[in-house]
Specification:
single chain; 262 residues; mainly beta; 14-stranded antiparallel beta sheet; 1 helix; 14 strands; 2% helix; 72% strand; globular
Length: 262
């Protein structure tokens, strides 16, 4: 990050990732993953006034998935470009809103061991919105996001939507509670499903959680948490749809040895 002056700045980043997995002989799975990916981003930002700032973002990703020909695996190259407009606004002293959105271009090229090829370009839109409100003892957060994510192996892509609502309240000096509700939907898009043999699917989740924490002393705290999860998985025939419901609860005791926590 470089600041040109009190109003203008520029942020850039680059990342390189490698995933190389080959199962051992006799393993229950014969799926291999050999992926190389490059990600670069550039984002200039300007402060318009004491409450408002704007910015632009450009992100490029290239992912190379290398299949093994004698196993009949496909080679895929996925190139993604994201262009976004970012706006942040301090609505009041206690409330803020930020928006981020723009187009996403996804190009997928697949080459099978038999020599068959497919090359497709898809354009989608992504968006992120965040709202924050603070009161004397309570904070409220509301978030929405929609984005494209990549899965290894065969070069498929997913569209993920998520809405999150959370509150945190300080009931007393040593007692606090939190509550979170999350809705998440992940849709796997496979335009060349006939070539790769990968079916399309849609997974939806509803997650509700609550927790309470009591600070016994400066180093000792006691907390309890409960969580409910409902997940549905819709798949293309001949695969069957399924539903999962799960409830978990636990009590935790924590003692802090600065700077380590146990």
């Amino acid at each position: 990050t470089h600041s040109f002056n009190s109003r203008a700045s520029l942020t850039g980043s680059y990342a390189f990732n490698v995933i190389d997995f080959v199962p051992n002989t006799g393993s229950l799975t014969n799926n291999t993953v050999d992926t190389r990916s490059h990600t670069a981003s550039l984002s200039p930002q300007w402060v318009l006034d004491s409450r408002t700032s704007v910015g632009f973002g450009v992100t490029g990703r290239f992912r190379d998935n290398r299949g093994i020909d004698n196993l009949g695996q496909a080679n895929t190259d996925v190139t993604t470009g994201d262009f976004s407009l970012q706006i942040s606004r301090q609505l009041t002293k206690a409330a803020s809103l930020s928006l981020n959105g723009g187009p996403s271009l996804i190009r997928t090229k697949t080459v099978l061991s038999s020599g068959s090829e497919s090359d497709e370009l898809n354009v989608s839109w992504f968006a992120q919105a965040s709202f924050r409100q603070k009161w004397e003892k309570t904070t409220l957060s509301v978030d929405y996001s929609r984005f494209e994510s990549a899965s290894g192996g065969q070069g498929t892509s997913s569209i993920v939507d998520e809405v999150s609502i959370g509150t945190a309240t300080q009931l007393a000096r040593h007692l606090s509670v939190r509550a979170v509700a999350i809705w998440n939907q992940r849709e796997q898009l496979v335009k060349n499903s006939a070539l790769t043999g990968i079916p399309e699917s849609k997974i939806s989740q509803i997650q509700l959680s609550g927790s309470i924490r009591y600070q016994i002393s400066e180093r000792i705290s006691l907390s309890a948490r409960a969580q409910y999860l409902n997940q549905t998985n819709q798949r293309e025939p001949p695969d069957r749809d399924n539903e999962l419901q799960m409830f978990t609860a636990f009590i935790a005791f924590r003692y802090t040895f600065e700077p380590l926590n146990f």
